[in-house]
Amino acid sequence: MKFSITLSPPTELLAIVDIFNKLIVNGVTGGAFRNIRPVSSNSPVEDVSSTNMRCNVGGASGTGTTTTTFRAGSTVGFALDNTIFHPGPLAIYMGKAPTTAAAWDGSGANWFKIYEMGADFTPFKFQSMDKSTFTFTIPKTIPSGDYLIRVEQLGLHVAGSPQFYISCAQATVTGGGSARPQMVSIPGHITKNDPSITVNIWNPVPIAYKVPGPAVFSG
């Protein structure tokens, strides 16, 4: 006798939100929304063509947010008040501000990816799941200046309806280099038909997965 198993998302996944509200710099965690732009909605961004894909709803301006300063090569990260609850990949982008980080709305082809978490397959699980903090290294070779540091966590718990949980931190990078990463625009870095965001992760369970967006710039 053969049995087939169809998995479905737990109902509690539909009620909890992932809000990245604290920035970690070289082991020190800042206050909530001190260096991260506050957002005006707890809801995820669901339209990949929306300008809200940059820094979330209400995150287009950072005039009320403190810009932190650290050297290229520093260890930086994000923290949540809860653990990441929505299954899906996570990516970190940096955007070079034309003037100051506080004044930039994230427009233009100024973004590049520096870090990502994908999935493991024995058993299948996204690497970001159940984490309340995570860190990454700022490439040593990027030019000095003001940047937005953007976290993009993608919830795939509802098949065919991707949900993006986004926050932007403001930073001034010092001691950098002269590298020129390949830049992308946001929105535009992911298309609505990308199989990485339309995949059904419950049935059948994936045996391979590619994080959406451009390749990671390693510096």
TrEMBL record:
Classification via Pfam families: AA9
InterPro entries associated with the record: AA9 (IPR049892), AA9_LPMO (IPR005103)
Key words, A-Z: Carbohydrate metabolism, Cellulose degradation, Disulfide bond, Polysaccharide degradation, Secreted
GO BP: any one term: cellulose catabolic process
Compartments where located: Secreted
Main location: secreted
Domain of life of the source: Eukaryota
Sequence ranges assigned to domain Auxiliary Activity family 9 catalytic in this UniProt record: 19-203
GO CC annotations, alphabetized: extracellular region
EC number(s) given by UniProt: 1.14.99.56
Annotated catalysed reactions: [(1->4)-beta-D-glucosyl]n+m + reduced acceptor + O2 = 4-dehydro-beta-D-glucosyl-[(1->4)-beta-D-glucosyl]n-1 + [(1->4)-beta-D-glucosyl]m + acceptor + H2O
EC top class, as a word: oxidoreductase
MF-aspect GO terms: cellulase activity; cellulose binding
Protein role: Lytic polysaccharide monooxygenase (LMPO) that depolymerizes crystalline and amorphous polysaccharides via the oxidation of scissile alpha- or beta-(1-4)-glycosidic bonds, yielding C1 and/or C4 oxidation products. Catalysis by LPMOs requires the reduction of the active-site copper from Cu(II) to Cu(I) by a reducing agent and H(2)O(2) or O(2) as a cosubstrate.
Domain notes from UniProt: Has a modular structure: an endo-beta-1,4-glucanase catalytic module at the N-terminus, a linker rich in serines and threonines, and a C-terminal carbohydrate-binding module (CBM).
Name the record gives this protein: AA9 family lytic polysaccharide monooxygenase
Native source organism of the sequence: Rhizoctonia solani
